Structure formats: C-alpha cells, structure tokens
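Q&A log
Question type: sequence-to-structure
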Amino acid sequence: MKNSMERGERAFWRRSWAGWICAVAALFGLPDCGSKGTVLRGGNANGGASNGGTGTGTGANGFGNSGNFMSWTGGGGNGGVGTGATGTGVGGGISISLEGGVTVDGGYVGSVTLTCTPGSLVVSGAPQTVQCSVALDGGVRAVDVVWLVDDTRIGSIGQDGVFRANGFVGGVVKVTAKVGTNAGGSATITTSITVDLQIQNNVGGISGADIAKMAGGGSADGQFGWLYPYDKTVFPRGLQPPELQFKGGCADATYLKITLPHYQYEQASQGSSPLRISIPDPIWKGLTLSTTGADAVQVSVSKMCGGQVTGAITEQWGIAPQKLKGVVYYATYESGSLGLANGGMVRLHLGGQSEKLLGGCFICHSASGNGEVIGPTDENVTNTYDVSSGTGAPSRMASWDYAVMNFYPGLTFDGKRILSSGG
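Response status: OK
Response body:
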C-alpha cells in the first residue's frame, strides 16, 4: 500500500491523468494500479488493466474520461500496452442510494452516511445551528453536495451543510443531500432534524413561587371565563395576534400556557381590569407556523388575586395553513387610538394594523361586491367612495341627501349603480 501511495503521489504531481487515478485509488484502499495489469476491485471501474507495462510502452487512461472525485464520468477503460492485459471498461458514473451505497462504473465501493449533529435541539427564541455532513467509507467527507430542506418555516440550510433554526418555530424538518454526476444523473440521501420550541416568558416580573402556584390551579373565582377568542376558533396565518379577553373578578397576575406538538410557550403577566392578555408578535407568528393545520392548539389560563388562584380555564384553537388576502372595512362607535371620538369607518389590511378611513357618524354603510366602492350614510347624506387602491384617503364619487337615498343603499357588483330605498 505504501509503495502504491508513493507511486500515485509522484504521478499526481507530474499532472498525469493515470497517476491522478492511482493516487485516488491508493487513498481509498483500492488495489495497486502498477505495471502488472491489476483489475480495480474486480471490475468496479475497468474490466482489465489500468496501465500497461513499463517494458514496451505506456498504458492509456484506465478510467477513460475521468473527472474529479465524486463526479467521475463512466467512460470505458483502454487496455494497457506492454505486459498489461487488455481492458474492456464499463460506463456507469457515481451514485448514492437511500440504502447508503456508492457505486462507481457499476461496481460497489462502500457505504455513505448523512449525519446531522445534533439530530434534535431545543430553541427558545434565538437561532441555533446543526452541522450536517455526508461521509464515505473510512470517514472521508464528501464534497460538492447540494443541500435542501423541506420546510423553511423551521429553518434553512446553506451549502456548507449548516442548518439554521430560526428560534421561534418547532417541528420536524427533512434534510436532503444531493450529489450530481458528470454522467448527468444525481443521487439523494435524507435524514431529519427535530426542533422543539420551549419558551418561558415572564413579562410581568412575577415571582417563581406565584407562577408555580398559578400553574397548579385553583377555583377561587367561579365567574372567571373566556370572552374572546371563542373556543374552536380557527385563525389563518398572517394576522396580528388576538388579544385574549376574560370575565370574572380581580386579577393581580396571570399565567398563560400554549402547547402543540414540538411547541410550548408559557407567559406570566401582570393582571389588569378588564382582564386582557397580549401575545408578542414573534410568538404568535411562530405558533401559526409550527402547525400544518391538523394539530389543535391547546390554550390554558390561570389567574391570581389576593394570593388565591383560579383556573386553568382552557380552549382549543385551530390554525389554517394559509393567509387571508384583502382589506376589511368596518364601522366603530368610538376609537380613541384612531382619533375617532364620534365614530367612523376603519380600514384593516389583513396582517396589518387598523387605520382611520372616515371620521363621523358613518355607522351604516354598504359595499360593492368587488370591494372597490363603499357607500356610508349618516343622518344627512350618503356618499360613495372609491377605495380600490386600498391606500390613502378615499376619493368621493357621488353624494345624495338622506331623503333621496335613505339608509343602506344597494350597490351593484362594480359599484357604478345604486338602488335606493328612499323616495
């Protein structure tokens, strides 16, 4: 083996193709490819000698058209001239199977493994990485590998084989390694990485003893219950998190727990009156991305007042694995945050924040079927507005007094005509 290695290395530095093949063969423990017409691994690459004898000539390239390792072209080998036997050669190239075998020109060389270390990890709101690699017999690491993942919601993988979990989404991601060949084919091997999210978020500075007490449950307030969301509510992706609302007596502190497979979030907050609990945006987005839609989200809430615990009260939510598209218009009697002290109309881009559209008493309104025209009415006048752009202040299209139009004018689908219930 040592002599074979030395011969291969000398030939390699002379930039001889035949020497290059000998060097690779020696590195991987294949038999000597010297002047005796030796068969490589019983015909793995060529049926005959790789090189001819030294006495009467030099041998042709035993591998035919050879490329660099891990992407050999499967050309037939030429027979040696001199003492070597005649080679026949068989095309084939390289392939990697799911069972872990590597073949070169139709002959089995050894096993291949895809390893990601560690194979599972716990994230808590910060990115984490996992190194993946493809190894051949003897622990030799493969190069020129194309890396893919089947679910970029959980994380991504670079061509360095490093998987990067984003830190807010849990689940199981499939990692695929592909190796191409000069013969035009490709080979694939896969494995999986499990990512579990576990976050404990004490946003209210609640003591550990009080958190443990609320987690244990109690029944002090018989009026404690959910107001919003409703049980079995299904949320699409892409929306702002809901504000959890409750009925019942006082609350000095609250404890929220949300679970589904590969996801657990716990939050301790200060109490309020009326009782509300807000979920941070990154937590809500990660929650909606951690389910395919088939898993029920389990939600439980407990509260403490004067050292007495009530709860947990529970609900189940669903998450639809798609986003809603469009703009929602609605009326409000009052909204201090939007500057609508006397009511008005509000525009909400799904996934965004509500914004003032029209101020004043525009509670009664109609809308065209295509969503491009609205017809709000107050006690004195009905106006139609073009809202097709979805942005900026709406432009007024037409105006009628109340006696003519009355409430709730009926708009055609395109909003170009109107049906009045007035005189």
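Response note: The longest strand covers residues 186-202.
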